[in-house]
Amino acid sequence: MEQKIRCDLNMGDNLRRLRLNAKLSQEKLCAKLQCLGCDIGRSTYAKYEAGELNIKASVLVALKDIYNCTFDEFFLGL
Questions:
Q1: Which of 16, 27, 28, 55 has the fewest C-beta atoms lying within 10 Å of its C-beta?
Q2: What is the rounded CA–CA span in Å between residue 20 and residue 26?
Q3: Domain harbouring 33, CATH code
C-alpha cells in the first residue's frame, strides 16, 4: 500500500526531468516498469511526480535501470 507524504522532500521534479529526458510518456514508462516487475499504473506514477505519494525503493531501482543513471540523479537539488 502506498503511503502519502507528510511535508517531506519531493523528488517529483527529478522524476519528471529524467522521464522527459528519456523521451517517455508516463504510460510508456509504466509499461517498462511493469516489464521489470513493478506493477505501477500511470495514475500512481503521476502521484509520484506530483509529490503526492512516496515512491517505493523497488521502483527507484527499476527507474535507475531504465534511465541508466545514478541514484544521485533522483535526489539532485534536494
A1: 27
A2: 9
A3: 1.10.260
